[in-house]
# Entry
Amino acid sequence: MESGFFCFILASCLAVYSSQTVSSNTDWDEVVIVKQNTPATLVCTGARLQGDISINWMVKSVDADEWKLILFASEEKKFSGGASKPSMRLADDNFGSTGDFSLVVSPEVADGGLYSCLIKKQEKEKERIFLLAVLKVGFFPPVPVPYYSTLRLFAQVNPSISVSKITWTAPGGHPMKTEKWSTSGTVTKVPQVRNDDGGNYTCTVYPWGNFTSVLAVHVDVSVDASKVISFTNISHSNEISTATQAQKSFLLTCPSSQGDYVLLHWLSPDTNNYNKMKLVYHYDRWRGSTSKHSNKLRLAGPPYNPVAGNFSFILTPDLKDGGLYICDVSLNDVIFSQRTRLSVLKERYNVQGVEWKHDNKGRRLNMSSNSPGTITTTLSLPITPDAAGNYICTLQLKNGQSIQAVQVVPGYVLHEAFCCGLKTTSESVTPSFPYPSLSALLLLVPLVSAAVGVLLWRQKHISDRGIEQSLSVQSGEAENIYENPEDIRQAPPQDSVYMDLKPRGDNDIYKELERYEQCQG
# Structure
């Protein structure tokens, strides 16, 4: 995917042609590595072209079976074959008398492969085979590189089997992280380029066998500090709203796109001023650098892999660490952004079990849950006399306490009772009306154990906050557990009834229960 970014350059080249003798189990005698469009000499010598002596230069790719003729020469004639190119010629114009049959090539990347120098004399033949490896280097964006952009450096050798490794070195001689891609070869990057990233970058190619003979190519990069990149290509994921308990590990997800680096910003819930947003974590996988401003954050492990560019975070928050988190993943200056609004709650009780029961202990109730913290039991239709009565939701805590809430399925006319903020609304039930399901909303957030006991407790003072309980009618359409009781009283019952425990204001979740208990006292 990176091949489109190649910007070929005339870089200074340390013209060291790596020539060596390889082991006998290979199909060539020497390896020559050269930067594309740079002259290289394939050395081949023999006796003077006299009598029946002739020379043949041929070429083929490493996976081909047949050789193609580049040129043929003898004492009497010389001609070029179908594989000949203007970039190929004999090194010595007087080859017939000197015996120097060396071939000079200035190859393109596609010219890499096997080259054969075959000298024939009567019935005898002398052949020398060269493996010509052609190096292509490139970078993007072109110089001068804009400030804060991502510099990409590429190196590709054809054929790839000719080299053992390719490295990139930053200015000052510092080794750089590299990855091998099928389309672009050996790649390295410099994200968020700054002034001190300008200078001379070196690509070093090591052939198989003799590691002391290498080819080094230098790329000079300058940075334009007056030209700062503008991040206009930003992809936003759907915002996540969730909650967690204090001091519990929480997975703070980032976009799934692979990236070069990740930035995590945080905005306190006490403000909507985005100018007060803080950078709390920065990780650059190419530089291997980490900058964090909180010990409560760390990069997530498997299945995530930050070294490979797959990011997410593990947060162990305090109560004050809720708010807006924005995770930005950058890939080649394209930003992928994920916003998470997080509420942090304090855990007060550990829940052991929850169940619905009826006055008639012999009556069995089926219970289900379609969302975290919600336990529902459904009444069969039509409603029979033995189905009416008290339905009791019991919450059993690990400390041995038992907390109950009672839902009445009455057979009398609509009435409304109100005492100290605890309001109950009921409607008459007849066989002609489809009757409902009863549910206890145990949590205001996806946490089964966070403050559940407080939501259902009527008899004992456990918390300093409160709830409102109302009986609501659910239509055949999508359920809204925070619907207006005034709207419900104006509509006939349709499919189900549930018990809705919901917050009163941003910070006063439990005040209504406290007022009720005070009235009871």
Remarks:
- The helical segments are 95-98, 452-456, 485-489, 511-520.
- The CA atoms of residues 353 and 390 lie 20 Å apart.
- The first helix runs from residue 95 to 98.
